[in-house]
Amino acid sequence: MTTxxxxxxxxxxxxxxxxxxxxxxxxxxxxxxxxHPDRLELRTDPARALPGTDPDGRMLTVSxxxxxxxxxxxxxxxxQAVDVRMLPDPADPGLLAVLTSTGDVPVTxxxxxxxxxxxxxxxxxxPTVDVAVTAEQVDELRxxxxxxxxxxxxxxxxxxxxxxxxxxxxxxAAAAExxxxxxxxxxxxxxxxxxxxxxxxxxxxxxxxxxxxxRDFGTRGTLEVGGGHDKxxxxxxxxxxxxxxxxxxxxxxxxxxxxxxxxxxGLAVLPFSQVVEIDGTRAMMRRxxxxxxxxxxxxxxxxxxxxxxxxxxxxxxxxxxxxxxxADD
Length: 329
Fold this sequence. Notes:
Layout: E1 2-3, H1 8-19, E2 31-36, E3 39-44, H2 58-77, E4 80-86, E5 95-104, E6 106-107, H3 109-120, H4 135-146, E7 151-154, H5 157-175, H6 178-188, E8 234-240, H7 245-264, E9 268-272, H8 279-288, E10 294-302, H9 319-322, E11 323-325
Parallel strand pairs: 2-11
Antiparallel strand pairs: 1-6, 2-3, 3-5, 4-5, 7-8, 8-10, 9-10
């Protein structure tokens, strides 16, 4: 093991850059980082919000929570112990978190493994092949989510059937809402904002033949679907006791942690956020969970088809568009 003794300010900037790789709804990257000599601040970026799709800022906050966890991973990989204060100032609701280095720590193999997964992580919308996810893999991911106060539940076959209905109803509701459709078109079409959105190479070239329908982006991409049918896929729900901004931020941390560990396990991950974007289907998910908590997001876990190449990567905004650096704080 090695130890980094670099200046925390430099590590904060590197962490902000690494956080840009985090997943976000429609790849909007709705975060802004402020790098100071003694701290790193995370704020929302209202310019990349989705008021039609996400009027409460639920998925915006989950997305920013994922970026927060990515930054934590990068700081630990740089040999920095991290203190995180979430929602520290009620008078400043846009300030989601403040990260502070509390000293040097050894760089562990685990921290480097997660940093590598951070660079490799991607969304895979292709159907999975007939290789089952093991109970041991799910148990590991459940333990990881629990570190952030978030539960992970593996859906049984009957609950997957209920999920099929919930996803279908969410898609029907989206199709009937012009504002929703307009936002989707903006972030997936040819005029999407530079450095953001979903290019054709990450959107399937046809509707996959799967039981649980994927999000309909209203357009066909160039990603080859392959021959899988998701029959061996595992569906899990991240959920918790609360349904407020603090809970959504923790859910984003757990989402990132679970996704990075799943990547390290060799699993492909596909999120289903549409079922929590709509009041009616959120209520359906709560019933699927036997009223034990509020669903934050559903994830499909499985093995990607090795006969087909990896999907393309979504673009990322330049560092100077997501981060401001104050060297003289």
